[in-house]
Amino acid sequence: MSSFPPTWTAQPFRTLRLEDEMRAAARPFFERLPDDPYVPAGWRARRLTRWTLGPGAAREALPATPVWQTKAHNSRFGDLPRSFAPLDAAWASSEPFDRLVASFRAALPEPVDGWVLWAHQIRTRWRPGGIAPPPDGPHRDERVYLAIAVFDVVGVDPGTTRLLAAPEGPVLFERTLQPGDVLVFDDERLWHETRMPVQGGPGHRDVMLLAVTRQVHDGLPPEPRS
Ligand SMILES: [Fe+2]
């Protein structure tokens, strides 16, 4: 921690902007996401791929495996192994996606060569009268650094994203992330939540959630490990 740049130590988050071209390139792939089976049907669709990171843009995809968090840091999904289909290869191997990963890595306060990159692609949908799951509440993903990249918000209120020093506060960041906004933060030091309104729609909010962990088994269920 002592080697962190002073700016990151004082403020363990930062904001970036997505290029319009990157958002446009991703749009067709948000239309082809399978349903997230861990929330009420139709509420959310998502994919997940993990890679080991090399130097520069090099990365190697890891086999799909259930992922998890502990109850201590995620009261809603903790202790629940969750499996998702991988990202569409045409998106994950594209030049705009490479630039997204590069901008995330460049925003981090330390090199992450040899670490594991996670990319969740998520569409959250609203429709009038739909059944919404309970809000996640403040939680940690149990990764090291996270980025919430908002690619699109269509027909709905985008909700409010907060970063907190502890579940009960204080609140260090609170903002409505607009299309193109990226919030990068230290998931080991901060708790986060997005308060999504459940009125309005039909519409959706498209997000790429990027994360890094240090070891290949970080974030996987404790047993079995292969
Ligand atoms: Fe989260």
The backbone outline, from C-alpha atoms, is globular
Bound molecules: fe (ii) ion
- Spell out the helices and strands N to C: HEHEEHHEEEEEEE
- Percentage of residues in helical conformation: 10-25%
Instruction: Let me know the number of strands.
Output: 10
**Spatial strand arrangement across the major sheet:** 1-8-5-10-4-2-3
Global Rg: 17 Å
Unreliable stretches, pLDDT < 50, 5 or more residues?
none
The major sheet is characterized as: 7 strands, antiparallel
Number of helices in the DSSP assignment: 4
CATH architecture: Sandwich
Mean pLDDT rating:
91
CATH class: Mainly Beta
**Range of strand content:** 25-35%
The secondary-structure class comes to alpha+beta
The CATH topology is Jelly Rolls
The name of the CATH superfamily reads: q2cbj1_9rhob like domain
Terminal-residue CA separation:
31 Å
Count of discrete structural domains: 1
Describe the structure.
- By secondary structure, the protein is α+β, with helices and mostly antiparallel strands.
- It is 15% helix and 31% strand.
- It contains four helices and ten strands.
- It has a seven-stranded antiparallel beta sheet. Strands 7-6-9 form a three-stranded antiparallel beta sheet, with no helix packed on it.
- The radius of gyration is 17 Å and the shape is globular.
- The model has no long low-confidence stretch (mean pLDDT 91).
- Residues 139, 141, 192 line the site of fe (ii) ion (FE2).
